[in-house]
Structures are given as structure tokens and as C-alpha cells.
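Run folding on both entries below.
>entry_1
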Amino acid sequence: MEAQQASPDSSSEECTVLEALPGKGTVSVLYCLSCENSVCEDCMNGEHAGHPTDSLENIVDQQLAALQDRVDSAQNRLPQIREAVQSLRDILQQLSSQRSSIEEDIHSSFSELHKTLDTRKSVLLMELEVTSGLKQKVLQGQLDTLLQEEAAINYNCSQTGEALDGENKAVILQTHKDVGERLSDLASQGLPLQPEENDQLDLMMEIEGLRKSIHNLGTIVTTNAVASQTEASGEGLEQCVVGQPATVIITTRDKSGGLCKTGNAIISAEVCTPDGSVADGEIVDHKNGTYEFQYTVKKEGNFSLALRLYDQHIKGSPFQLKVTSSPDDSPPTTTAANSPGSRSRQKGVRRGGSLLGTPKKRVNPIEDDLIFRIGTKGRNKGEFTNLQGVAACSEGKILIADSNNQCVQIFSNTGEFQSRFGVRGRLPGQLQRPTGVAVHPNGDIIIADYDNKWVSIFSSEGKYKAKLGSGRLMGPKGVSVDQNGHVIVVDNKACTVFIFQPSGKLVTKFGSRGNGDRQFAGPHFAAVNNNNEIIITDFHNHSVKVFNADGEFLLKFGSNGEGNGQFNAPTGVAVDVNGNIIVADWGNSRIQVFDGSGSFLSYINTAADPLYGPQGLALTSDGHVVVADSGNHCFKVYRYLQ
């Protein structure tokens, strides 16, 4: 019989072979491989006769090992599951954050529309009152004149009538003398008998067109595309030729593999070597679920092409890419290092101490000089086109907002290129005209995007996280972070400073267009001192203004000119540990240093390699001044003794 299992038509007692394992008795225990049951020797002489067997201990050991393998295999999935769970939680958190941000944007946008409508309503009512009042004044004046003339005629005619009715010749003669001439004047006087105004007052309101516009106002943009199903195709996936455009087609699909038929997905693409991104490229959204990545590589070799959808690799990514010098693999006529389009790493050049350019103008001179400069005009790494904002962080990094190249480039304090990120476009996560950059204490990189009219937040690795200020900002130029972790945004177009929580919630705002203490004319950049006071460069007012964290005006300094402490359109600003304020003087192409109260201290010496239209400015973690020399398409680092 089978161990532990009675035969349905047997009345014998169950075999208790499992209770008589080695060490508990002398019963020999086997395992029937055919029936997959443990049996005793008696059973093997019965119904299990002729079946293949093995030692129960061997089978138990084998199954224990098999079970352990399965446990190990199952447990090996746990890190993947945990990673997926964390990824989903991050996406859910980001989704919730985006929903809250968009909800606030909707409320804000419609609130602004209400204000605009109310303002227009007030203007129309005022216009109606003024227009009708002017017409009424003309008509009422004409009416009063005619009524006066009517009364005068009636009065004089009445007097004359009394004289005519009497027979007193003396009275008639006297009346003729007193009234006759007046009656002649009244009879011949020109009177405004025709209306001098009209009664037309009409209202023209194109309500139907406005109603249609409002009906279609705003769209919630999203897709159902997922990276695991999204595919790429085209010759540009595997090979391309140096200097010649290559193309990759990206087809987005939903979780079931169905084609997505709308655009606006957030896609990023990079052609990389192990030391960073090297290729120029542009992603074109065809608005039908497909996207075209066009890129050009200026160096031959083996590269990696990474295509990501919502920061996740699509199917097959990263792809291995072979770049050849020509279609027939013929050797190039010039070396890559010397070819006109080649990419080169430009290392910092240390400069010796320079002579003071204007010794008579310097007061309390600070001993400093040019340490190195990085960059030329171009689109490759270490090259710039209209760089503007500059930031530095405690990890020893320098960040440059490369405005016309639609990216942010990151360097070490010694000038070594580390990475860059940014995809040109007008969708969340893309950059159209980055002008300001700052680093949050949590490591996030904050970018003011002037043309997209919002501020984007990226992780320290350059992955898009969120945006803020959409619907409120008109032209954000500079950004900074205060000691509360709030994001300070200088809106150049609106002439207003906005303060946001990183979540996007507006804390406060201050400023308007004008030349008053709390007004601006094209403000550019911001810095925050140890007292959490906000320092703003007021470009067209040629001054620097200081406010407390609530936006209350504290002080200002500077005027238009070329003298000590004067400005010709100030731009970048930074504060050292002693509270001294360092200002980039754009029009005068110099850098000035002031104490915390705005008193002029000195210049940063730039005579050895003159600046040309400096923009953003920051202090590096090792105490040097870094400035975006926009006109020379480079950034420069100067020694600065605090």
C-alpha cells in the first residue's frame, strides 16, 4: 500500500513508513518514482512491484535543493519588484504633484482671466460714462441756450404787447426806445436750431467668437505611451557617417502595444561615449504618435544611442551605434582633432597675475586675477552660444545655462566638462531658452526658461521632475533659492519677483514696472545673503535693490554711469560669506564689489582678458568668482579673496 494513503477498496491499516524514518526504527524507506510517493519494502512487493525507486533521503535532498532554488529564484525577483514599486510610487507622486500644479495653474489662469474681464468691464463702463457725458453736455448746453432765448423773446414781447394795447403815446415811445432794439436783436440773432450732437450709443461685443475661444480654452496634455512598448527604427539606430545627419523614427505605443495617435510625449535622446553626451540632435514631434530624432556626430567610433520615454529606456535602448568617417569607410582627409567640425575638450588655461588695468580708480583693491576660461562659440560640449545664467554648488560643480543651445552644461571647479542635458522644445521637460540656473539644497537643478515662460526642475542627473510658474510668468530670467528652500524667480518681462515653494505653490510676489523703490525695469538676476535678504539687479534702472523675504524694500544702490559704484545695466549678482555683493556690470563690461550696505569696494581685475557683456555670476565652492562672458561665448573663473 502507499504510505500515508489508504487504498479506497482496502480495509488494511495505513502504512506508517514516514513515521519510521532512519533513526526511529529499522524500516527501510524508499520512494516510488512512478507514483511519486514514499513506500516501504512490503509495498514494493505488492502494488508497487516493478516500479523504479530511489532512497527517500536522496529524493528529499533533491527536492529540498529544488525548493531552495525556487525560493532563491523568487527572492531574486524582489529587488526588481521593489525597484518597480519605487518607480511607480515616484510616478504616482509626480502625477499627484503635476495634478496639483496644473490645478493651481488652472485656478490662477482663470482668476487672471476674471481680473482681465473685470478690468475690461470697468473700462467699457467708464468709456460709456465719458462718451455719454460728453454728448449730454453738448446737447444740454444747446438746450439751455434755446430755452434762454425763448424766455427772453417771450418776456420782451410781453412788455411790448402791453404798450401796444394801451393808447398812451408816451409809453409807446418809451417802449420802442427800451425794447424795440432788443426785439430786433432777438429776431436776427443766430440760434443753434439744429442738434449739435446725436443720440447714438451702441455696444459692439464679439461674444460668439469669444465664447468659442473660451469653450476651447486650455487642454490637458497627456499620452498613454509606455517605454516598454515604444519602438525605434531607421538606419540611424545602427550606423551613421561623420558630419552627416542621421535619422531615427520613434513610434510610441500603449501598454497593450497599440499605436498612440497623439503627440506631446516627453522623449529624450542622447548619443554618448562613456564620458558624456557628444552629439547635436533635435526631436521633431509629428503629433501622430511618432517622433523623429535627427542628429549629427562629428567624430568616428563606437557610440551608444539612448532613447528614453518619460526618463525610461524604450525597447532595445541603449542601441550600439557605429560612426564611420565616410559611407565607404575611406580614411578621412583630416584628423578628427583638426577638422573644422571636430569636438575638443577645452581645458582650463592658468593665467599669471595681471597688471591692474585702472589703478587710480581702485579702492581697497582685492588681489585677484584670471585663473582660466572655458569655451568658444559652438554647439558641442564645452562650447556655447549666448550663455547666460551661472550657478555653483557645494559639490564642486559649475553649471552654465547655454541659452541658444537649449541646454545646461556642467563642469568641475577646475573647468573639466562633466555632463550636459537639455532637449529643445516647448513641452514640459524640454528647454527653449534657458537663461537662469540655480541649485536647490536637495541637489535639484532649477532652470528659468524665458521662452517657455516657466521654471523647470531637474534632478542632479538631469532628469525632468516638474515645472512651476506656468500661466503666471511672462519671461523668467534669473532664479535663486532662499534659506527656506523657496525658489525665487525674476520675471524680466513682468518686472516682478515671484517666490514659489518647490511644489509650485506661490508664496508671494512683488514689484511692477517703473522706477520706484519697489519697481523694476527689466530685472535680470537674484542672489540671497545670510540674512535671507533678496538682492535684485535692475537692468534698465541701472541699480541693485535689496528686499526682505516678504518683498519689503530695504535699500538700493547704483546709478547710470561709468564711475565707481555706477552701472550701465547690471546683470549677474552673487554674495560672499561676508555679505559683500558682487555685481556684473554688463554695459561697462566689468565686475564690481560692494559691501552689504551698497558702498563700493573694488573691481574684479579683468584686464588680462577683457569681458564683453558679462551675464550670470556666482561664487564657486572653493571661493572663486565665475562669470558668463556672453559676448565672448565662454565662462571665466577669477581668483577672489574674501
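>entry_2
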Amino acid sequence: MPANLAVAVNPDLEYSVVDHEKTGRLLVATDLAENLASKFNLPEGETFTILATMPGSDVVGTTYNHPLYPRTSPVLAGGDYITTESGTGLVHTAPGHGQEDYLTGLKHGLDLLSPVNDAGQFTKEAGEMFEGMSVLGEGNTAVVDALAETGSLLLAEDYGHKYPYDWRTKKPTIFRATDQWFASVEGFRDEALDAVDTVRWVPDVGKNRIRAFVTGRGDWCISRQRSWGVPIPVFYDKETGNEVLLDEHTLEHIQTLFAEHGSNCWWTMDEKDLLPEMYKNEADKWKKGTDTMDVWFDSGSSWAGVAKGRSELAYPADIYLEGSDQHRGWFQSSLLTSVAAQGKAPYKTVLTHGFVLDEKGFKMSKSLGNVVDPLKVIEGGNNKKAEPAYGADVLRLWVASVDYSGDVCIGQNIIKQTFESYRKLRNTARYLIGNLADYVPPGKDGSNSVPYDELPSMDKWMLGRLSAVLKDVNSAMDDYQFNRATQELLRFASADLSNFYLDVAKDRLYISAVNDPRRRSCQTVLHACLEGFAKSIAPVLPHMAEDIWQNLPYDKSTESVFEGGFPADLLEYPECDAEKWSFVRDLRDDVNKILETARNDKLVGASLESAAFIYTSDENKLKMMKEMESDENLVHPPVKTNGVDDLRTALLISQVNLVDSPEDITSSCEEAYISVGENSGCEIGISKAKGHKCGRCWFYDEQVGKDGKDLCQRCDKAILAWEKETGNKFGVPEPENAAAEPVS
């Protein structure tokens, strides 16, 4: 109220002069008269008498006397912020406080009166009766009391309305119009917009955001009234306060002082020391300013002192990375200062991310007690059972697995889930390492790797999948899509390796003779997968990657996983029989669904206790399956396979029977264990396998036991080969005094 210089009305609203003996004559918006009558508690049945009605445009240009000060002020045309939702339809206007009031005053040439100091207290301009009082404290009460004393207060009431509060102190803010320094953007706005097009924005929507902010940017207010910050090195005339001393001589001198003493010397030295020699005799005339630079100007010019100012760095910078709110902040201020000074953007790429919320999606706050401490995730809390130490890699894996383009959540349960993914990756690596103890890589003396052309189809397919995954991971990393890269690695480790390839490979890794080509070809693939796996996870999980590398059971090409770079040599494997192995995996999924029912009904236990009967009318699918028939199957004329690319191995079932009709399935299997596969489209039946269980590989075979041995023909051959190679007899212990021989 002490700062009031005008009253604003809406020219498009209708206003009325109303009268009642309790209130006297009032000017109000016509649509608000009835509501105001109820607020004044007029006697029952009585209301205002309307003396005259007129449009708001007729009220504009009139004047009124201020209720507390001897000044006459105008009634002005305000904006559409004046409505008939509440109040009187006439709005108090103080150009020195509030943006809408400021703009209205600017439009109509009103003075700027802001009788409030930096401490939020009324100044002498508010009058002796209010001077020194807190605006938000006793000053409010004093103003209301003063209005009552002059007979100008008709009604005082509390009401709820929107008002900005300071987010840190949770107290209402005070707006003041003060003298500021501005930088004009108009002279280089087009150049800034052109520079936006030269930058790669991740995600793409960032480009639209920055363009919108630069396009709508007005003059940049670069001064602040704070007790800290980089000072604006300007001097003001002590008498007038308006004359300014700021030229190349003063700037060069201040620059020299800042370089020698730091910017704080502006506050510790007096004017005589701060002025250059040519102005020292005028030191009594000038007063140093107390304004500081906008911190966005400080950070926005960091490219000059960092990227451009250091020989080991590059300008423009490769990438700027910050939160999505920085399109109006650091990204924009950096762009504007760089374009103004250098004519180009200070960065080649800008990546923005969302913010971290708690597990329930709420903003983290110390007052709410929901802040997740990264160090506690890494090192654990005091109670290690309740808050275990997950290590830095788990936290990094969480960061890499979320979609950072929006806000992300974190909490104990989410970290637990991330830890399970971490364990899956680590256990996969352990399994790979554990099966390469006697492997010698290519290029080393005594290498026992198998050339690509001699590998079975399944192994070639696996290497093709490895190359495809590494290419996807590399591409995702280049595009900063870390969650896509992470998900691809997790899917590869789980679906391609653990759930299929490694599960199937156990048979030849554990059952085959040591130098069996089937085992060596599998090790060749495991070696490629392990090195590709370690190098591809290194950017996200550096500790796990290095741990893997230091525990490789063969001579390493480099001392550290980080010295070899991305495994480019593993990107060259072509796709091999993708259609066939995709179909086999679909078939395997369908077989496993029926097996689950058979297990629940106690028909079978392990999958090797079962036999599968499969029918399809699709000639292509039938052809692929017939090419994979094992020579251990007896139903059809056997086709000799390499012992790897056969159905019973891929399906982990003792016998696979390709039948000519659905009736052949119903005659061999119970109805409960017959189904048409959702994935493969084949009709499948499951029954108990024929024959006896091999004591070594656990496959069921009708030949087991016929020669007095509990071994299948394959295992019998493997043992004979081992006996021949070692000179030992399987199942016969060596003499106690036998000399120990090294075991490879």
C-alpha cells in the first residue's frame, strides 16, 4: 500500500457506483456487487443501490486520492489479469513490486516507487510511521491499522490465494524493482539460433527447447544483489548515483588486480586502490558498485576459462551434460556468451537428463528424509544386513540401465533388483572363465582353438549373435543410450548364453573327451564371448571387467581390459543359420512348457528322462529338423550329425521323434502332454524316454546295459579314448606308491 501509485480496471468489464448507508458509495465491478454485499453483512433483505453503471473504459482516466499519503494517482487500463472471480474488479497497482504492476506502470509512464530495503524493511520513502518495520511482519499490521485510523478500511479478512514462496526458507518472497545491468541479446539472436543447428542434441527434443528459449529471450539481466559472487567492476558518482565510470582503463586495471589478488579484492580494497593511476586523484568522487554478476553469466562463460583457456582441452567442448532444466540456464547462457564472443556454440553435443526421485516418485529432500546417499549404496550402512554394501559397479549399473531422458527413481528395492542383474552378469562371466582352464587362444604356442570354418553351425550362429550384440552395444554407447546397451548385454547374457547356448553346451563341455573337437569348438566360442563380454561391459562396470580380465586362465593380449579398446575383431562374424536356430529356440520354449506340466504331474523329473514326438506340416521346418536328427534316434533312418547340431542336444531331451501325423503323437503320448506350440507352430507330445539312464551323461538310451555297462555308446567311446591317451583304466584306482604326474 505505501508503494501504490495507481488503480487498474479492466476496460471490457462493466462497473457500477453502488450505495448503502453502512458502506457509503463504492465503485465496483457490476458482477461482483452482490458478492460484496454478502461480505459486508448488510441487513437481511437489503443490498446495494446501484446509482450508475458504465463500462470500464469510461473509468479509465479518472483519479483518486491515496488514503495514507497526500498524492493523487490515476485509474489505468490493466490487463486480462483483472477478472470478476473475486475482489472488487479494481486492482491495486505498485510498479515497484510485482511484474504485472511493473509492466502496467511502464506502459503508462508511472514512477518506480519501491520503499523496501535489502533486509525486507520499509524505508524512509514509506513514511516515518512505517520506516524500519518488516514488510512481512509488523509492517503489514501497521498498514492495516493506519487505514482503519483514516476511515479508509471497510473490511479486513484472511483469504487463500496463490503467492510465490522461497523454496529454501519456505517464506513468502518480496518483489522489488531495482536498477540492474542488462545485456542485449537482440544483436546476435539469429546467430545463436543458427549455432543451435550445428549442435547434436541428446535427446532430440532438447533442440526444440533451446530454440524456444533463445527465440523468446528478452534482455539478459546480468546483475544480482547478493553478498557473494563475482563483482561487476563499475564505479558510481557519489553525488548523483547515475554517472558511471567503466572503460577499458578501469577494466584492464581490475583485471590485473583480480589476477594477482583474486576477485575478492573488490570488497577488501578501497576505491583509491581499485582505480587506475589516471583516476586515482578522483577517488573521492567515485563509489564502487556492490552488484555481482549473474551466476549464469559466470558458469555460462566457463568455456573461456576451461575449454578454450587450457591447451590440453578443446574448444568447442565435445559434450555438455546437465539436467533438463539447463536449457533455460547453463546451456543457454553458454551458447549466448560463446556466440557473442566467438561466433559459435561452445559445445558439439549437449546431453540432458531428468532428475533422481525416491522409490515412490517423490522429489528427494533432507526435510522429508528420503534422500538416497550414493556412498551408502556403495559402502553400506551401519547395519550391513539391512543396508548391504553393493559396491560402485551396482550403482553404475543402475545409472546405465535407466532411461535418463526423464526423471528416474531409486530406492532399496530398485537397487536390489539391479544387484540381481549384476549377479547374473558376474555369474555368467565366472562360468565362462571356469570352462577355459585348458584353453590356449589362437596365436599362442600350442593353441587348441578351432578355425571358424571348422565350427559347427550352432557355434557359428553363437559367434554371429556375439557380433550383432557388440555392434548394437557399440552403436548404443555412441548414441549415449546406455540403457539400451545395458539391456542388450543383460539379454545376451541371460537369453542367448545362460538360457540356451551354455545350457546346451554343458553336455559337450563336461562329457566329451578333453580334446574332443566338439569341446574345443565350444571353448573357442566361450573365449570370444568372454573377451567381448568383458570389453563391452567395461565402460559401465569397470571393476567387474578388470576383475574378469585379471582372472583370465590364459595369456592375455594386454595387462588391463582398458588397454585393448573395443573388440573390433569380434564384430566381423557373419550371421549363420539364424532362421534355423531361431526356430530351434522357439521349439525348445514350446517343449519346455509341456515338460513343466509333465514334471508337475510326476511323469518325468529332469528333461533327459523324457522323449519328444514332433509333427509339422511345414516342409521348411521339417527339413531343418531332419537335418538335425541325431544318430542315436531310432525312429527314422538316422542322419549322421556332428554331435552338436542335433535336436536332442539342443532340446536337452533323450529322444526326439519326428512323426508323420498327429495320430502318431496321440498313440505315443497322453493327451495332457500334447500341445501345439505357440512359438514354433509344431504339434508336440511328451512321454517317458525309452531305455536306461547313462551313468555318465544321464541321457536315456536303449543300448545302455546291454553290454554289461551303464554307459551309452558315446560315453563308452569317450572313456576308451581317455584310457588310450592316459594309459589309465577308468574306475581302477592307481597304486598308492605311483609317482604323481602333472595334470594338464
